[in-house]
Amino acid sequence: MIFMPDTAPAAQFTVLGPDGAPINGTDGRLSDFYAYPADLGRCWVRGNMIASIDGGATASGKTAALGAAGDRSVFEQMRYAADVILVGAATVRTENYSGAQVPVPQRGARQARGQAEVPPIAVITRSGDLDPGARFFTRTDVPPLILTCSAACDATRRRLGGVAEVIDASGPRPDEVDAATALQALAERKLLRVLSEGGPLILSLLIENDLLDELCLTVAPFLVGGKAPRIASGPGEVLTRMRPAHVLSDDDGYLYTRYVRLD
């Protein structure tokens, strides 16, 4: 998702449907649309992605060209609500990630909910091949979590152990990260409100293993064409029924959808 300066003007949203009403992106009501279920006893996994109206997940290889002020507001609300942000190593490299930035008022709200002031970012990486000098490790208030496999764990700890917590998240295969094992490691650390920001391979991994509870998809009013990837691109295919929880719109023509798994 796109990062925009904090000086960007506040977005205005409209709830679509018979009870539609305008929402100011800064008045607190937007957060109600992205609250996690109460009294969680396991990880609740939310995916947050953006796509063009013709299904492209990137433009020129990145998501940044698809976003706008409203997308930034929704993106921030989801981060403020999460216990942990889950991403793939390719997303960290491509989008030049840094740690989550949480303003003082939202830090207080998080503390009141029993959360840490700032959510850590957890990276799924089979190789552990991340640069310890990257801003992902140097521009953050909390150390990230590195979810890797048994085959790479020792080497990753030697390289990154001083700037991150390295976790063995292998399942039956020592050369692969197992998604369920990764979530169990997060649950053991009381990080139950999980926000997955991609990329497509990580989202597909969660879908294929029936671990995605909801998907928040921003539909950007652009056509991309070409060979842009989908928001999920993995080897497996499943059919999972979802129900719409809400749809918002803004003056820029974006749609902010939230779908929850139909149990």
Short description:
With 263 residues, this protein is of the alpha/beta class.
Provide a descriptive summary of the structure in words:
This protein is an alpha/beta fold and 263 residues long. Helices cover 25% and strands 23% of the residues. It has eight helices and eleven strands. It has helices at 29-32, 69-81, 89-94, 104-112, 135-138, 150-160, 179-188, 200-208, and strands at residues 12-15, 22-24, 44-52, 84-88, 121-124, 145-148, 165-168, 193-196, 214-220, 242-250, 255-261. An eleven-stranded mixed sheet has the order 2-1-10-11-9-3-8-4-5-6-7, with helices on both faces. The longest helix is centred in the first third of the chain and has 13 residues, at 69-81. The chain starts with 11 loop residues before the first strand and ends with a strand.
CATH superfamily, please? Dihydrofolate Reductase, subunit A
**Unreliable spans:** 1-8
Distance between the termini: 28 Å
CATH topology: Dihydrofolate Reductase, subunit A
The helix-and-strand class reads: alpha/beta
Top-tier CATH class: Alpha Beta
Instruction: List how many beta strands DSSP finds.
Output: 11
- State the shape: globular
Order of helices and strands: EEHEHEHHEHEHEHEHEEE
Strand fraction equals 15-25%
What's the arrangement of strands in the largest beta sheet? 2-1-10-11-9-3-8-4-5-6-7
Helix content: 25-40%
Q: Can you give the mean pLDDT?
A: 90
Going by CATH, the architecture would be: 3-Layer(aba) Sandwich
Rg, alpha carbons: 18 Å
**How many individual domains?**
1
Domain Bacterial bifunctional deaminase-reductase C-terminal: 44-255
GO molecular function, one term: 5-amino-6-(5-phosphoribosylamino)uracil reductase activity
GO biological process, one term: riboflavin biosynthetic process
Pathway: Cofactor biosynthesis; riboflavin biosynthesis
